[in-house]
Amino acid sequence: MGANMIEKILARASGNVDVKVGDIVFARPHRILSHDNSAAILKIFEDLGGKNVWDPDRLFIALDHAVPPPDSKKANNHKIIREFVKKNGINNFFDCGCGICHQVLPEEGLVEPGTVIFGSDSHTTTHGALGAAGIPIGRTETASVWALGETWLKVPPTIKIVLSGKLREGVVAKDIILYTIGQITADGATYKAVEFHGPVVEEMRIGGRLTLCNMAAEMGAKAGMVPFDDVTAGFLEGRVSGEFEIANPDDDADYESILEIDCSMVGPQVARPHKVDNVVAAADLEETRIDVVLLGTCTNGRLEDLHQAAEILKGKKVADGVRLLVYPASRSILDEANRDGTSSILLGAGAQVAVPACGPCLGAYGGVLAPGENCVSTANRNFKGRMGCKEDTGIYLASPATVAASAIEGMIVSPYA
Amino acid sequence: MEIKGRVWILDDDDINTDVIYPGKYTYELFSNEEMASHALEDFDPEFASKVREGDVIIAGKNFGCGSSREQAVTCLKYSGVGAIVAASYARIYYRNAINQALYAIECPEASEYVRANREKLSGSEITLDPGKGTMTLGMQEFTFSQMSGKAKEIFEAGGLVEYTKKKLG
């Protein structure tokens, strides 16, 4: 029996020839990611007796969760992190404005196929888009990895998701992953790895693949991965120098289950409050008024996402009273959007274009909701209160095209009727 | 060690870490006690002021899904919660609980029974013996599997901070 992706990656990261489902291994990461929570991790690192970090070049820190900082406490948090970075010689540090950790890490060539990326953020699954295993862990565990360079993992079983058929016009990775989560449910992949296969994935650019793997977290997955191919190689060219060893699955690899989704049947999707698996076709959604539109974040803040929205918003205005917030995923994406005219289209439609960061997705600043308000968002979570207010608010998740079309109408509509 | 307290029923599946510990507090460097004062704020605003030492949370499946924020464990631990009993846990939450040495017990039978009889059982007494893998609720007894391997080792060291301290020597 051959090996699947997570088995190959965990064997390599733990120095074993092969591993099987259920084995406990000690894995060493290629990178360990953290963000604004690095100040809290540092405190734990000191509590557990850590002095020097195990390998400064393996650490990656990007400030993105409260950027620019809305109050002096959060500003001080950043200050503590900057001092730590300087003292420990951490070169992979990306200060406020560089972008969101899950975009900057791959963009900077810091994800290599076939490796383990640990991250003190639940959406660390994103990095599986490059054929790696992005595995989320908590703060204490991150502090422990800073000190020891490894942590224990149980080799999980894998669900193979085959995305077959052909995408309908205007349907993107976000629609497909929302539909898939609706089928699998919010805990359908808990303690499991997920591999995305099939013609739809093969034709998808890295941006869409990052969206798929990002939201693998919303089905509970330990890691979401796409096999390495020419698309991956094209993205890595000029970003990753040196050799890496890919970890594509063997033809006779073992899977716990195989789920095939005929994407030709899937139209624009919406996840209704307050659970990500509460998914319905946008065309079937009951009449839903909106107040805030969030375009961007680590799920859909890439150039192709902004392009998709701009195509719909060109020459149009957002509805009266609707606030369209744009949070590009990185500085280079915003720079490109400024140069190719995308930003002008968005601004012309009435958008507020913000500094590349997480924004109100996590409810701490930058466009939180008022009581009674609804938001349609390209982000990845619609939990009650997630955007800073739980009193009679609702968050609806959708693709860039759907949120753009909805911004114009002031209510959630399917972008391609 | 036996845990004895009242039953707190959180009658839902997929209770996420945002409602256990709201995002607006995640980047504040709070003390454990401050974190405890916000425990479950967006799920049951009365919880933090009414919970007592040793109380046991009973919830449905996929408890602790969503964000990896560890304060969602810390806030419950320092609010006095003796153990959580759920039908199942989200992966990161379960690891975080082990790393903080808070009992996260998986027992779908107890979860189902308590939720089905919630009016009668809310606030009633529960006794839990993690060493034996048993819990008693009135006349009902349930068994659950005990921790093993690496998880047990970390838990018994008092959590991952203590465990790593030892390892660093």
Count of individual beta strands of chain A: 18
Provide the structure class of chain A: alpha/beta
Spatial sequence of strands, sheet with the most strands of chain B: 4-3-2-1-5-6-7
The percent range for strand residues of chain B is 15-25%
- Amount of helix of chain A: 25-40%
Q: Distance between termini of chain B?
A: 28 Å
Q: Give the radius of gyration of chain A.
A: 20 Å
Could you walk me through the main structural features you see in this protein, from its secondary elements to its overall organization?
The complex is a heterodimer of chains A (417) and B (169). With 417 residues, chain A is α/β, with parallel strands linked by helices. Chain A has 2 domains: 5-262, Aconitase, domain 3 (2-Layer Sandwich); 269-409, Aconitase, domain 3 (2-Layer Sandwich). Helix content of chain A is 30%, strand content 18%. Chain A has helices at residues 5-13, 38-47, 72-88, 101-107, 139-148, 173-184, 199-202, 206-215, 230-236, 297-300, 303-313, 331-339, 342-348, 400-409; strands spanning 24-27, 31-34, 59-62, 93-94, 116-119, 133-136, 151-154, 158-164, 193-197, 223-225, 257-262, 269-271, 279-281, 292-296, 323-327, 352-353, 374-377, 394-397. In chain A, helix 2 (38-47) packs across helix 5 (139-148), helix 11 packs across helix 13 (342-348) and helix 11 runs parallel beside helix 14. The longest helix of chain A is centred in the N-terminal third of the chain and has 17 residues, at 72-88. Chain A is globular and about 60 Å long. The termini of chain A are far apart. The model of chain A has no long low-confidence stretch (mean pLDDT 97). Chain B is of the alpha/beta class and 169 residues long. Chain B has a single domain (3-168), classed as Aconitase, domain 4 (Alpha-Beta Barrel). In chain B, strand 3, helix 5 and strand 4 (103-106) form a beta-alpha-beta unit. The longest helix of chain B has 9 residues, at 91-99. The model of chain B has no long low-confidence stretch (mean pLDDT 96). At the A-B interface, helix 2, helix 3 and helix 5 of A face helix 5 and helix 9 of B.
